[in-house]
Amino acid sequence: MPRKARILIADDNPELLAAMKTRFEQINTEVYTALDGYTALSQAAKHQPDIMILDINMPAGDGFSVMERFSNLPETRRTKTIFITGDRSERLDKLAFDMGAMEVFHKPVPFKSLVSTVREALSPKAA
Fold first, then answer.
1. Does the CA dihedral 55-57-62-68 come out positive or negative?
2. pTM for this model (two decimals)
3. Which superfamily does CATH assign the domain made up of 6-122 to?
4. pLDDT tens, per residue, the chain with 127 residues
5. Where are the domains of the chain?
């Protein structure tokens, strides 16, 4: 039996983090969480997720630094990254896409669109 897809979600808002964790567990994935960038890096190295959903602005390392450090590891270069942020500046969105982000969602997070994007990323044709 193939392993479940692994998702790492990092956000400094515990309520949003819990809601996203619950939602993604409903689509039969393994979900790991972190409240800050340092913990996100640790979880990413330990679990090697297929997708990371990272808040851009969080303590102990923002989402950009997590993605950058994680993408330098040879075994995890193919991990897809989705950013979430409360900042609606076009400059931040451009930076995220320039770094290779799959998508950027603005808070409040549109769960239906986020789940749809994750499903698409996990589909065999997206590999």
1. positive
2. 0.90
3. Response regulator (3.40.50.2300)
4. 577 899 999 999 999 999 999 999 999 899 999 999 999 988 988 999 999 999 998 888 788 888 888 777 766 668 899 999 998 889 989 999 998 899 999 999 999 999 999 999 988 754 4
5. 6-122
